[in-house]
Amino acid sequence: MKTSSIRITVVAVCCITATSCFNLQHVTDYSLSALEGVQTFENIHYGFAQSCKDRCVFKKTNDFVIEEDGCDCSSEKKADSINLKIFHAVYGYFEGLSLLSENDLVTYKTEALDNALTEGSFGSIKIEKEQVVSYSQVAQILIRAFGDTKRKNKIKAYVTEANEPIKELLAYLDFNLSSNLYGKLEVEKERNRAFFFDITKNEALSFFEKRQATQEYYERLNNIEKKQNQLLIYSQTLQKVSEGHQKLFENLETLKAEEIKHLLFSYANEIDIVIIQFKKTE
Amino acid sequence: MPRLTSKQINELANRFLALAQSIGDYRMKHFDTLTRAQNRKIRESHRRILIYSDDLFTMSATLVMADVEDSLARIANITEKITSTYKNLQNVQKAINIAAGVVTVGASIFSRSPLAILDALGKLEKTWDA
Predict the structure, then answer these.
(1) By CA distance, what is A91's nearest residue in B?
(2) Would B1 be classed as within a structural domain?
(3) Which residue of A124, A191, A201, B82 has the lowest C-beta tally within 10 Å?
């Protein structure tokens, strides 16, 4: 094959496959942000079982009861295990999506092919050095284009299939944390309010003792509100992740389009901002 | 009779909480005018209603499982497929290496031809779809 023919072939292949070479960086960026956002769940360090234990210890303290255990928190542990299941499912999905959309996944090393094809004369066949390089280039372009097309089609299929269930899982994880667990913290606030109010009205206590009790009340209140703040920020994260996935789903046919790129980049940025807010609460 | 959903139980929990907060507000506001017995009675009701609210929030959280079971199964299935696709795309590198190896084996043979490279690429289709 003449050198000029090889060059024409390479150019033709490049033109044909140019539309097939997809940069899915925006999908990767969104997926990685979603992954990091979802993962902040592990930094909440509070759950239903802990809430149960806190309530139990508070009661024992007020009743002057000293005993090793005796707190039945089996229902709360079950609630925590459900949240963990949902978290793992969501995390696994976004981890997979980020790995699959990573551009390096379809960047293959073809040096082995270079080595397999060396210049020289083989009977009536003569391979020139330029031909070795060109065939490798063609191979790389073809593999990349082929891989990218396969990858894009698979991502489309997975995102389509996953959109409804992933949004549901994110919504229920959000519900359990920002509504149910948050609600339990509100209950604890109200319990503390009533208890410490009674202490301040106890005429048998000194001014100093009442002041100590008031101080403890505000410390407890502060701790509760810190936890609630974390839950609300995490809730925002989950909502942003859900919205981003919906946008990705709605614009699957235009994965290359500038608009969807900007949209996903902006969702990734919004999630990152919320993550920073969350880290400040730690 | 249909069972209550997690959202309905959560709604109940919030109503009990609001009720407890109102009772708490009332007791604190009128503390000085209530008798000891009245105060004790209202305090006890307040305490019980808070327990109901607390337990209902937990119950709502456990009932979520019934709502998400189907979605959990679907996402697990999709994640497995993603992992499989990912591994297949990684295997392509192996396929390239194997293809190169196949060509290299023929090094000692006359037919060490450029066409062998294109043939090896054709085998990749089968690797991806495997």
Answers:
(1) B79
(2) no
(3) A124
* Contact between chains at B54 and A161 (C-beta distance less than 8 A): no
| Residue partners of A184: CB distance under 8 A and separation at least 6 | A48, A51, B54, B57, B58
In this structure, what are the phi and psi dihedrals at residue B109, rounded to the nearest 5 degrees? -105, 155
Whether residue B86 is contained in a domain is answered as yes
Shortest CA distance from B60: residue in chain A: A180
C-beta atoms of B92 and A106 within 8 A: yes
Chain B interface test: which of A27, A59, A172, A228 (most B C-beta within 10 Å): A172
Please count the residue pairs, one from chain A and one from chain B, whose beta carbons lie less than 8 angstroms apart: 186
Burial tier of A255 (Cβ tally within 10 Å: 0-12, 13-18, 19+): buried
Give the CA radius of gyration of chain B. Answer: 34
- Report the alpha-carbon distance of residue A95 to residue A103 in Å, rounded: 15
Residue B34 lies in a domain: yes
Closest by Cα among B79, B57, B60 to B68: B60
CB contact under 8 A, B61 and A48: yes
Rounded Cα distance between A142 and A41, Å, is 42
Distance CA B98, CA B123 (A): 10
Residue B117 in any domain: the answer is yes
User: How many domains does one find in chain B?
Assistant: 1
With an 8 Å Cβ cutoff, are A183 and B114 in contact?
A: no
- pLDDT tens for chain B, 130 residues long, are 568 899 999 999 999 999 999 999 999 999 999 999 999 999 999 999 999 999 999 999 999 998 899 998 999 998 898 888 888 777 766 666 666 655 554 444 444 455 555 555 555 455 445 4
Q: DSSP of A92-146, one letter per residue?
A: HHHHHHHHHH-GGGG----HHHHHHS--EEETTEEE-HHHHHHHHHHHHHHHHHH
For A113, the closest of B58, B72, B96 (CB atoms) is: B96
Handedness of CA A260, A265, A269, A275 (dihedral sign): positive
Specify the 3-state DSSP secondary structure of A77: helix
* CB-based contact A175 B53, cutoff 8 Å: no
Which residues span the domain enclosing B84? 6-129
Residue to test with chain A: of B58, B115, B125, most A Cβ within 10 A? B58
